[in-house]
Predict the structure.
Amino acid sequence: MRKQYADAKLDMTPMIDVVFQLIIFFVVTAAMQDKLMETNVRMAMAPNGPVEEVKDPRTVMVDVVENGAIQIMKTNISEAKLFTLLNNARKTSGQSTPVVIRGDWATKHEAIRRVMDICGKAGLWKIRFSALKEKA
Amino acid sequence: MTPMIDVVFQLLIYFIVTTKPIDVITNLDVFRPAPDQTAKPEEKPPNLVRVGIYQDGYTVNDVPATLELLDVALAKVASIDAGQTIMITVSAVSEHGQLVQALNLCAKNGLKSLSVVSASN
């Protein structure tokens, strides 16, 4: 029995093909993830801030750019629209839906306050500020 | 094998050149009192630490302070009671970066109970 397989050679080609497919798959999906996180905001540094291990899938990201405009996924959005959006978020996923505010470090607090007030009006109280822990 | 190794090297070089490292993001938790609650009369219980953020600097319990002094004060507060509520009052014209810096110091000293209030002026 053993003698029969003694000179058998392992063909590597299919395995290499599969590995390449996997590499391409992961590279493409990783790039898509990056797109969601993209922002025009230059965040302030907070080297002592905690790192979030588990991300709540309900999280709403609100960006506040330097001139005080409110953006969601790089699109300008009016205050009324933001209110409707957050109100819907509360209706569908509850009051503990986290809102992450990514504010530009040079933005006046005025603009951030507007976003926080809208969150309050919409009944959302879990507010977090995003900052850079380490600059790459 | 040689052509395959050549291709793999090409791919390796391509990915090394194109990938840029991503920044590490942190999220600073705050507690935000509802807007209608701010209408409450000004009572200042002694166990509340008030931090003010203004365009030109910080205050701790109404005493002007630099960022370093704020750090020292917060460290002192945390050494007594880390569960202490810090009320952060932010002036509308101050920069958001200043608030983040103050929150950063709170996180550094392990203070968790943070309340951010916007000053009306």
